[in-house]
Amino acid sequence: NAGVTQTPKFRVLKTGQSMTLLCAQDMNHEYMYWYRQDPGMGLRLIHYSVGEGITAKGEVPDGYNVSRLKKQNFLLGLESAAPSQTSVYFCASSYSVPPYGYTFGSGTRLTVV
Amino acid sequence: GENVEQHPSTLSVQEGDSAVIKCTYSDSASNYFPWYKQELGKRPQLIIDIRSNVGEKKDQRIAVTLNKTAKHFSLHITETQPEDSAVYFCAASTPGGGSYIPTFGRGTSLIVHP
Question: Across all residues in chain B, what is the average pLDDT?
Answer without folding.
Answer: 93
